[in-house]
Every structure is written in C-alpha cells, then in structure tokens.
C-alpha cells in the first residue's frame, strides 16, 4: 500500500464540524428534562447541534436558549428551533439570568500535537487534563445562575470526576450525582450543582 492509497484522517473522521448527539447528549438531556419546570429559564452551554436544548424545551415547555462558540453549531441549533447565541461559555449573559444551566463540556484530554485543529476538536477536547473548559465554566457560571438555580453538568471518568467535584465545591457549589451510565471506555455521570450561597 502506498501513501496515496492510505485513507486520510479527514476522510475517516466525521467531516461535520458540529458535535452531533451521542450517548453523553442523551443522558444529559433526559436527566435535565426531569428537573426543569415550565417557568424556568434554561441555558444550554456548548449547545452544538441544539439536541439537548430542544429535548429539554419539548419535555418541559420551558424557555430554553443555547450558546456555542462555533458559528456552525449556532446555525444548526437554530434550525432545530433553538434560540442560539454565539459566545464563549456564559460570558455574554447578565447576572442571575437563568434558573437552570446544562453543559456537556469538551472533556477529552487533548493530544500534545493536536489532531484536527478545527471546530470538532474544540467541541471534544478539554485541554491537557480534559478539565480546562470545565474550570473556566465553573469560574463564571455562578454569576449568571439565579441563587435558587441548578446546573446539570456531564462528567466522564476520563476527566476525573473527583477533581471536577473538588473544583465545583471550591467554586461554591454542592455536588450530587443524579445519573450515571457505563460505556466501553468510560462512565458518564450527570452532576447537579447547587449554589451553597457561601
């Protein structure tokens, strides 16, 4: 086989530049939807295709908004009927804006040399330890969450749930595991984060 005959990475991987619903999306959507009331204002951070936001909206009849850094994701989410804003995490929102915030973060540890250097890599990789984006999120999310609100955060055993729990507690949240699901190389967990008011 010559170099010309070998398939290119770009041909093997999905060419789509928007993260599509997978097991993690389904677990977050169904867990959060059970907790959302119809009078809640909900923000789906890193909304991707808009699947989680759409599911929660349809199940709860709440006002749900999406935010993503990827302009292609925002466009796809809007096609699903989700009001989506292009922004970095929660930076563009005012204090006490939301009752509920959902987040399926980029949580895979990144390869030192990078892999794709595109929107899909941005959607799935969370820095050297897989927690960089989660830490940035935790640093600011308390500002936009109402005092009696809740966050539903997807975490993988690949990322180190204990370290995420410690970071969330340091940021002023009480952490409860609401759901978990085992897959071939990881266990997925849904953390509920409630402000402690401290």
Automatic annotation (TrEMBL):
| One GO-annotated biological process of the protein | methylation
Under the heading InterPro entries, the entry gives: Euk-Arch_PrmC-MTase, Methyltransf_25, PrmC-related, SAM-dependent_MTases_sf
Q: Which organism is it from?
A: Halovenus rubra
Membrane-spanning residues: none
- Residue ranges constituting the Methyltransferase domain according to the UniProt record: 42-104
- Bias-annotated ranges (Basic and acidic residues): 7-16
EC number(s): the record gives 2.1.1.-
Origin organism lineage: Archaea, Methanobacteriati, Methanobacteriota, Stenosarchaea group, Halobacteria
S-adenosyl-L-methionine is among the record's keywords: yes
Mind telling me what this protein is named? HemK2/MTQ2 family protein methyltransferase
What is a single molecular function from GO for this protein?
methyltransferase activity
Q: Which UniProt keywords apply?
A: Methyltransferase, S-adenosyl-L-methionine, Transferase
């Amino acid at each position: 086989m010559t170099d010309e005959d070998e398939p290119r990475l770009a041909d093997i991987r999905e060419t789509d530049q928007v993260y599509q619903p997978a097991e993690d999306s389904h677990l977050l959507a169904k867990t959060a939807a059970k907790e959302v009331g119809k009078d809640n204002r909900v923000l789906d951070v890193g909304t991707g295709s808009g699947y989680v936001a759409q599911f929660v909206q349809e199940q709860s009849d709440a006002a749900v908004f999406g935010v993503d850094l990827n302009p292609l994701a925002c466009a796809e989410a809007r096609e699903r009927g989700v009001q989506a804003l292009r922004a970095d995490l929660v930076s563009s929102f005012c204090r006490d804006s939301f009752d509920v915030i959902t987040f399926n973060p980029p949580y895979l540890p990144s390869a030192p040399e990078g892999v794709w250097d595109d929107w899909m890599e941005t959607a799935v990789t969370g820095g050297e330890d897989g927690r960089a984006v989660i830490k940035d999120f935790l640093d600011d999310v308390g500002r936009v969450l109402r005092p009696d609100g809740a966050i539903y955060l997807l975490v993988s055993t690949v990322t180190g749930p204990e370290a995420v729990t410690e970071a969330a507690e340091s940021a002023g949240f009480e952490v409860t595991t609401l759901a978990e699901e085992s897959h071939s190389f990881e266990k997925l967990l849904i953390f509920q984060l409630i402000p402690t008011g401290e």
